[in-house]
Amino acid sequence: MTTTNALTHDAIPLRLHGPSSANNTGRVEVFYREQWGTICDDSWDMNDAKVVCHQLGYKDGVRALPEGQVPSGSGTIWLNSVNCTGREQNLTSCSHKGWGNHNCSHLRNAGVECSSSDVDECSRGLDNCNKNAQCSNTVGSFSCRCNQGYGGNGVTCDGE
């Protein structure tokens, strides 16, 4: 399973998750309080998809994917009733009901399909890798891996 994520300025990291995430399509997940979680699809639309896709480094959003069009997630549902204008720099600039406030199940996770143009997050400083980690760019994505002698997920690296 492939995941993608990117970070811009004070934004919360995002990723696309699911079997088509390598093809710019998937369930949107947010990293908040050291935990990945999902977004409920209440009011999910193209404006939200545009902001997510831009934050992930894609040229634009192609479709907003509501329930049933993305695989169900697990864990915390972090956001609900996200309402973007489409001009925000990142998803956390959009209005929503508050972190962890929702009225839905994982059957109603929100997703996006993004255009395939790529941005190199690593060279542009748009990654959220730890200073003791290496950033590797992939299409629409990046990954972080702790340097030798450090353990962690790449966003957090602790000396061994």
How would you sum up this structure, described in words?
With 160 residues, the chain is mainly beta. It has two helices and eleven strands; from the N terminus they run E-E-E-E-H-E-E-E-H-E-E-E-E. It folds into two domains: 14-117, Mac-2 Binding Protein, CATH 3.10.250.10; 118-159, Ribbon (Laminin). It has helices spanning 46-55, 121-124, and strands spanning 2-6, 14-18, 25-32, 35-39, 61-65, 77-79, 111-114, 133-138, 141-146, 150-152, 157-159. The strands form three sheets. Strands 1, 2, 3, 4, 5, 6 and 7 form a seven-stranded mixed β-sheet that branches. It has a two-stranded antiparallel sheet with strand order 8-9. A two-stranded antiparallel sheet has the order 10-11. The protein is globular. The chain starts with a strand and ends with a strand. The model is unreliable at 1-9 (pLDDT under 50). Keywords: Disulfide bond, EGF-like domain, Glycoprotein, Repeat, Signal. Disulfide bonds join 40-104, 53-114, 84-94. Pfam families: EGF_CA, SRCR.
Largest β sheet strand count, sense and barrel closure? 7 strands, mixed
How many domains, as an integer?
2
- Assign the CATH architecture of the largest domain: Roll
Give start-end ranges of low-pLDDT stretches: 1-9
| Mean pLDDT value | 85
User: Helix amount, in percent?
Assistant: under 10%
Q: What name goes with the CATH superfamily of the largest domain? A: SRCR-like domain
